[in-house]
Amino acid sequence: STLAQSKLAPDHPARENLGKAIRAAERAADLTRQMLDYSGRGHFQVRPVHLNGVVEENLHLLRVAVPKQVRLVAQLASDLPPVDADVGQLQQVVMNLITNAAEAIGEREGTVVVGTGTRPVRSDEANLWRHTGEPLPPGRYVWLEVRDDGRGMDPATLERIFDPFFTTKFTGRGLGLAAVLGIVRGHKGGLSVESEVGRGTVFRLLLPVSAKTPAAPPPEPEGAPRQGTVLVIDDEEVVREAIADAFASRGLPCLLAGDGDQGLLLCRDRPEISLVILDLSMPGRSGEDTFRELRKLLPGVPVLLSSGYGEEQAKSRFAGDDLAGFLQKPYRLNTLLVEVERCLKQR
User: Fold this and answer.
1) 104-134 tens-digit pLDDT
2) Could you tell me if residue 239 is left (phi over 0), alpha (psi between -120 and 50 degrees) or otherwise beta?
3) Using one digit for the tens of pLDDT, what is the confidence trace for 157-188?
4) Closest by CA position to 279, among listed 237, 217, 225
């Protein structure tokens, strides 16, 4: 998608559609990484995140998913400071709260209002962390509020909505709220809820303001990358073809291999190879074993590791080995080209 987008004029009407497809793919990747995290096969990636951006992307997605009689309204504060969060987890919280709010309205017309802002928290405001059970240190916090005008809940139901196995189909509550609470607790935040039968419900989430600045997106590569043949070893044909198309658009030659053994055969007597992009998980010869053999055949040639797993877990299999870098799948075109340019400069 990013390759197709890069070939369109800035004012081409299809650029916006491709942008939506790219963002949807990235959201799916975040959720996939989150499932790996919960299964113990991934690693949480906490970094400064703009909450408004997460909310806006989810609202765009959910507007076509919620019933037509439910109106989604955003009231987002401008110049909101970042929070330290795992994007995939934060996304689950936002989607879960909005989805539950829409379901609580039922079949009648109603409105879900999603708001953000900042506020100070005092040490005596125990109501803000009653559900998490962990006091909030005094300071400045970013808040997220999801308010609906649905059926609401009685006090007995309200007391149980965060129980792991408690669901109330008729209210639309319960599904995933225990996970929401766990995520908020893991981010050292607060969560409160107010509800009244016949008047609706409001969830309020608090997250401490980050002291860091969000990382800038990778810069657009300028012109063609430095020359040198790149060997791509990846068992996914669609990945190989996408990389080949990206490199062709920049005049960068490459060789493609579908597994480790084929890659090792291609690199024999090929002094023009200046970089190897190596997939971690492949059938047959593993990425680790392929890397060791590449070091014998192409000593000094940088190897860029690529995987759907988190960077820390993937690189832990190469402890002590000199990897040139890491590409987290799926990645954008400019991320790929910037990394390739950086690695080729090392030659």
Assistant:
1) 898 889 999 999 999 999 988 888 888 888 8
2) alpha
3) 888 888 765 655 444 443 478 878 888 988 99
4) 237
In 10 A of CB 20, how many CB atoms?
Answer: 14
Angle at 124 between CA 123 and CA 126, to 5 degrees: 100
Assess whether the region 44-208 and the region 229-345 belong to the same CATH fold: no
Please name the CATH architecture into which domain 44-208 falls: 2-Layer Sandwich (3.30)
CA neighbor of 99 nearest in space, from 190, 32, 23, 174: 174
Q: How far is CA 119 from CA 55, 128, 143, 146, in A?
A: 18, 12, 7, 16
Domain chopping of the chain, boundaries: 44-208, 229-345
The CATH number of the structural domain formed by 229-345 is 3.40.50.2300
Output the six-digit token pair for 291. Answer: 């890397």
> Dihedral of the CA atoms 102, 103, 108, 110 (nearest 10)?
-20
Question: In what helix (H) or strand (E) does residue 209 lie, and over which residues does it extend?
Answer: none
SS3 219: coil
Cα 120 from chain centre: 28
Distance CA 327, CA 309 (A): 10
Give the three-class secondary structure for 117: strand
pTM score, whole prediction: 0.56
End-to-end CA distance of the chain: 30
- Separation CA 37–CA 326 (nearest Å): 18
Strand partners, 191: 205
For the packed helices 87-105 and 51-62, what is the interaxial angle rounded to 10 degrees?
40
The residue behind tokens 């919620």 is 66
